Amino acid sequence: MTGPDRRRLVRGALLVRRVEERLLELYARGEVPGTVHTAIGQEFSAVAVADHLVASDKVLSNHRCHGHYLAVTGDVPGLVGEVLGRANGVNQGRGGSQHLHTDRFVSTGVQGGCVPIAAGLAMANRDDGIAVCFIGDGTLGEGVVYEVFNLASLWRLPVLFVVEANGYAQSTRTEDALAGTIAGRAEAFGIRHGQADTWHWEELWATARDAVRAVRSGAGPFVLEVRTARLGAHSKGDDDRDPAEIARLRSRDPLTTLIDADDPDVLAVRDEVERVVDNATAAALAAGPGTVPVPAEPRRDITWSKADAPRARFVDGLRSALADLMRSRPDAYLIGEDVRAPYGGAFKVTGGLSTLHPDRVRNTPISEAAIVGVATGLALGGALSLVEVMFGDFVTLAADQLVNQAAKLGFLAGQGPDVVLRTPMGGGRGYGPTHSQSLERMFLGVPGLRVLAHNGLAAPELVVGEVARGGTGPTLLVENKQLYGRVPAESLPAGFTLLRSDERFPTMWLRPARPATVTLLGHGGICHELVLACERLFTEHDVIAQVISPTQLYPLDFAGLREAVGSAPVLVIAEEGQGFAGFGAEVGARVAERGLPTVVRRVAAAPHGIPAGRVAEQHALPGVDDVVDAALDGIKAVSTDAR
């Protein structure tokens, strides 16, 4: 280490220390909303690693991220403003202490949440740089870490995992929460491991240099274990450790030792560092509060045009649409379990795509959280990222990556990454309670997460073609299992016109020639039952019905439904999933709020698990009879009211 190297590291560590001390002072004065997590005592870990990075490298961090952010960006005003919730903050106060987002740096407040995103960024950034992911030893309790270790090792991704081992997971000692060793964990996945500590920070700098060089050389991932000490509380003032232990750690603190000894490098930069912190504090206090505009509900007229129902099997049309997407977007990746040839996915949607695009269609381990997180990182790196989760029931395993990671990135930065999770949902195949659910309602209402559902009426190339255009942000795209083998055009009755709205993801309207008495509304695979019910209502009961189905469930633009819903006195809302707090409940509420003169009836799955037995499953899932009965009951209610 040269003299300039030493001075640069001392300045960086001192800057981090003084910024965090100032943040604690501001917190005590009531200027900091929420919480603040400091890394006082750990500063040399951040600056030693960051000193070897280049502008094209990406850095991921956790809730204790201030030092990493400053070491990478040097942006003191942006950090102080962000923690204070001010408009001059790096994300205008949206993220606060834990959530920071720039082109080079992302931190998240959920333990382990950043790890798969780092792997995805490493994959996207392979030709230009590396990814560095800072986690604490407490995070080694999270399963997603090991999913990513496995995948990063298999794919030899250029990612450096820095484990800052301060001996605690919040208040729990590491020895009470962690079996084995950090080195043993790396070794188990065939990942190289190095160890250093912040007390010997010059040696740490050299070890970090070697680790970064190794990753940059193309040798695959590396785990750098940094032994260190956190002198402050986990958050604010909640420190219940023995004061004698803290005093002992403070007496060994390398930066305190340098300051107390009037180290020349400290003296050379101390006044300048203080000015930087003072100026950043003044700028934040002078700035206005950060605000978030509330998006207004669209108010516009919908234009309808004639559409043709797909005349090929839905699975064939979907496969062809995905092939077109992969051909038109050379930056697109498709990853998932068993998606490559010869298997081509559990429902054969991706068959043959890996033959055409062997480098961009990849099989993954059975690791749903890692798969979705890696796909998010790929998209954050500029790719169009498609991920297939084999069954929709398994999306629950990746919920954190969808809800707390991908969806929040757009909130912080203004535009979320184009990561699209495709997954089959629904019953009717005898797969039983853990492979037959329709769980899309669990993800409705998550700001920043678009939810789409193929309904068979909209040609798959329309939906996938819009995905190929980009700009969708994080998206959950539901494919009903029963839909795969159907030819939608074969079920359409005579005497109806199929219309599509001019929305990006269209609403489909099967409209009769004469005014309808009943509107049948549903999404996804149940549209097949609605079409059959529409025909039966006419042939058996002389009732004219119409079918309307949105492709985009959230955010929901009610304008696409208003005309059809308002044109008939009875509305039957059907969904294959549970009715309680479901999509139908939201549509019913919108109808009531707008005062539409409509009698509403709802049809949904029975309130229990979905059985594997054929007869029991048929009874559990809504069918044509249920829809017809609900429509007739609604008509009866209208007739009663009229009397």
Structure description:
The chain has 643 residues and is α/β, with parallel strands linked by helices. It folds into three domains: 3-282, Rossmann fold, CATH 3.40.50.970; 305-483, Thiamin diphosphate (ThDP)-binding fold, Pyr/PP domains (Rossmann fold, 3-Layer(aba) Sandwich), CATH 3.40.50; 498-642, Rossmann fold (3-Layer(aba) Sandwich), CATH 3.40.50. Helices cover 39% and strands 16% of the residues. It is built from 21 helices and 22 strands. The strands form four sheets. Strands 9-16-17-19-18-21-22 form a seven-stranded mixed β-sheet, with helices on both faces. Strands 11-10-12-13-15-14-20 form a seven-stranded mixed β-sheet. The protein has a six-stranded parallel β-sheet with strand order 2-1-3-4-8-7, with helices on both faces. Strand 14, helix 16 and strand 15 form a beta-alpha-beta unit. The longest helix has 26 residues, at 3-28. It is elongated. The model has no long low-confidence stretch (mean pLDDT 94). This is dihydrolipoyllysine-residue succinyltransferase. Its EC number is 2.3.1.61. It catalyses: N(6)-[(R)-lipoyl]-L-lysyl-[protein] + 2-oxoglutarate + H(+) = N(6)-[(R)-S(8)-succinyldihydrolipoyl]-L-lysyl-[protein] + CO2.
Count the E strands: 22
Radius of gyration: 28 Å
Task: Examine the secondary-structure arrangement and name the CATH architecture of the largest domain.
Answer: 3-Layer(aba) Sandwich
CATH fold-type name of the largest domain:
Rossmann fold
Q: Could you report the average pLDDT, rounded to the nearest whole number? A: 94
% residues in beta strands = 15-25%
Give me the side-by-side strand order of the main sheet.
9-16-17-19-18-21-22
- The shape is elongated
